[in-house]
Amino acid sequence: MKITKVEAIPVRQKGEIKEINDSAQDGIIIRITTDEGIVGYGEVDSAPWVIKSIIDSPVSHRTCQGLCNVVVGRDPFDYKKIWDDMYLHCNFYGNHGAAIQAMSGIDIAIWDILGKALNKPIWQLLGGKYRDKVRCYASVLMPYTPGEAAEEALKWKDKNYTAIKMGWGGFEQTTCKCVELVKAAREAVGDEMDMLFDIGYIPSDQVTIDVASRIQLVKALEPYRPYAIEEALWPHDYIGYKRLVESTNTRIVCGENETTRFGFKQLIDYCKVGFVQPDITRCGGITEASRIATYAEVNSINVVPHCWSSGIVEAASLQIIASIPNAELLEYCEQDTPIRHDLVPDDIPAVDGYAEVPTKPGLGIEVSDDAIEFYRCDKY
Ligand SMILES: [Mg+2]
Question: Which of 20, 92, 110, 375 has the fewest CB atoms below 10 angstroms from its CB?
Answer without folding.
Answer: 20
